[in-house]
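User: Let's play a game. I give you a shape written as tokens, and you guess the letters that built it. Ready? Here's round one.
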């Protein structure tokens, strides 16, 4: 599955002859702008598992897989089947002190609604079920007609929407949250895994494999033999101001997210509130060191680090700094990748609330910090999206070419 990378020259340069292979999906070289550094490059002819890499910022622009369309269709169909199979059956069961509780995925959402956390239930439904299903069905909508020699209607809009929503699919993060929640309570009760759990596990695995074959450039090329480049003007003021606003909002939300309880545990009528950091300390004292480290990194370290890094990046482009470009783009990519994984703790709370409802014996309720922490994750993700990474490289490029802001 490893890709061989091909460095690309600037558009004004001649492509090296060794990059030209025999059978390719691209009938002739195409040009495109790197969406992270705004460099115009000429793409070489690609063979199976060969990737084209931006010569300036080292971004992987595209990768070609032989028969990718057929593989995506098969894998996406399989993923949807397992997703549907994960809905009607028992997902998890919990047994303690002679009391038994079981949930299915849709039932767990209804429990959150009953506990007056409809917003949390809606968020979970969107990122865990609705958006993954939309992504898979969009891929089938695009690729099945293309295999039959037809062009699907509104194909360009579907591709654009598909890749805009892709970062918000969190099925694999939810699965990790489920496993963490089970480890938290396995010492105090008997846990059962239902058929839906294994179906959801297979759905997550197959969807992850599906997305490994999805490449925006190759998909666009299948739809249109001539790829029309979408030019997004550089607007430094709008990007910088929007990013500062979102970062400031995330900082404000981060305070109640850590001060207020993220969940309340009621045992025999005694309420025990737990904050994010308090839960990490409790897990550490219980000897669950790996889980404590995972929660600390995902829920404490990553949000703070992401806010600090984005503040540094946004200040650097606002101050028009022209050094350490490679380092800055590296840290920007890190923040984009790890940001959504902070949702693990929110999913842990959602699973525990849905599963442990044994009346006065034991019950768990979500705290106000859960919604505040959701806001932190969403705002930091939006801040990373609003930050225009092209501004890192924009000033040197403008000075060389005499280009004026657009």
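Assistant: Ready! My guess for every position:
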């Amino acid at each position: 599955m490893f890709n061989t990378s091909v460095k690309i020259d600037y558009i004004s340069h001649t492509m090296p002859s060794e990059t030209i292979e025999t059978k390719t999906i691209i009938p002739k070289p195409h040009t495109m702008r790197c969406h992270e550094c705004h460099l115009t490059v000429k793409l070489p002819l690609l063979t199976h598992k060969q990737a084209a890499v931006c010569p300036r910022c080292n971004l992987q622009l595209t990768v070609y897989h032989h028969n990718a369309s057929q593989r995506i269709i098969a894998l996406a169909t399989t993923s949807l089947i397992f997703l549907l199979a994960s809905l009607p059956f028992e997902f998890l069961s919990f047994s303690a002190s002679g009391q038994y509780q079981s949930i299915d995925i849709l039932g767990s959402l209804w429990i959150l609604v009953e506990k007056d956390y409809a917003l949390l239930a809606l968020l979970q439904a969107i990122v865990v079920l609705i958006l993954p299903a939309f992504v898979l069905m969009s891929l089938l909508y695009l690729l099945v007609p293309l295999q039959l020699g037809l062009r699907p209607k509104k194909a360009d809009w579907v591709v654009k929407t598909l890749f805009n929503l892709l970062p918000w699919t969190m099925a694999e993060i939810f699965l990790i949250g489920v496993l963490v929640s089970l480890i938290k309570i396995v010492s105090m009760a008997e846990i059962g895994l239902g058929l839906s759990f294994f179906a959801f596990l297979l759905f997550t695995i197959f969807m992850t494999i599906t997305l490994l074959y999805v490449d925006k450039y190759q998909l666009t090329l299948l739809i249109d033999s001539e790829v029309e480049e979408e030019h997004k003007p550089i607007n430094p003021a709008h990007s910088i101001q929007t990013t500062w606003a979102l970062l400031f909002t995330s900082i404000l939300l981060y305070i109640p997210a850590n001060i207020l309880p993220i969940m309340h545990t009621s045992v025999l009528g005694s309420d025990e509130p737990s904050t994010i950091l308090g839960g990490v300390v409790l897990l550490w004292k219980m000897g669950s060191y790996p889980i404590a480290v995972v929660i600390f990194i995902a829920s404490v370290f990553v949000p703070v680090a992401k806010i600090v890094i984005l503040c540094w990046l946004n200040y650097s482009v606002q101050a028009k700094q022209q050094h350490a470009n490679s380092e800055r783009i590296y840290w920007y990519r890190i923040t984009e990748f790890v940001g959504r994984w902070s949702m693990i703790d929110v999913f842990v709370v959602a699973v525990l609330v849905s599963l442990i409802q044994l009346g006065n014996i034991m019950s768990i309720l979500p705290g106000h910090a859960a919604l505040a922490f959701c806001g932190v994750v969403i705002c930091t993700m939006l801040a990373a999206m609003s930050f225009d990474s092209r501004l890192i490289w924009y000033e040197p490029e403008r000075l060389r070419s005499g280009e004026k802001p657009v």
